[in-house]
Amino acid sequence: MILLPVLNEAEGLDVVLKSIPHRLLNEIGWESETVIVDGKSTDASQQIGFDAGCTVLVQPSKGKGEAVRLGFEHAIRNKFDALVMFDADRTYDPDDMIPMLRQLKKGGVVVGNRLNKHLQENAMSPTNWIGNHLLTWSAVLLHGVEIHDVCSGYWLFDRGALLRMNLNSMEFEIEAEMYAQCAISEISLTNIPVSYGARVGEAKLGSLRDGSSILRKLLVRKLFPLPVEEELGKGKLAFESND
User: Fold this and answer.
1) What domains sit in the chain, N to C, each tagged with a CATH number?
2) I want to staple 113 with a disulfide (CB 3.0 to 4.6 A). Which of 44, 54, 91, 149 is the partner?
């Protein structure tokens, strides 16, 4: 399953959907379904998804974390063998999922690293570049598992890993929590370089506020190996399966 969290991405979504390498996926033995999780877009994002033959899910509220968790739930319920997710703003190259799939281990996770020589010159401000490196360094310091880009939006999950994701993030701290969950559950994590370009449309990630939320999530999950609500007995957020 290909998961695209979307909020007002009409400017780039059509190009992204047309760029998904379905033929190459079939050649290496994967059938694919594209699922868009939309945070109540006010532009044509939903219609573009419907017109392209995608499954379109609409979030109860808003936030990337909620979108990702809803997509995970859909993948688990429909028994997909793997899930790849990336942003729909044309920053990521859909073709990069092919080498990622070739590196996928049973029960494991593959993360696309943007912070490499393939990073386009205008893709990330110096402040964001420094912030991404500091957050990645902090993640490894806290949780001890190697990752090269903890804020990457390009992730690939084997079904076994997906079933072990126990998450409660609502916003852009979701990737940090996914990393923390891999560390907590001792899920195999593979890093692979991917290309990264300038986004199309309005940026949604704020440097200081969202960076603080990401660091806070890393700290909280270090202190509370289960999401806080479950630690306090307020409910179970993990997806359940008979698999």
Assistant:
1) 2-229 (3.90.550.10)
2) 149
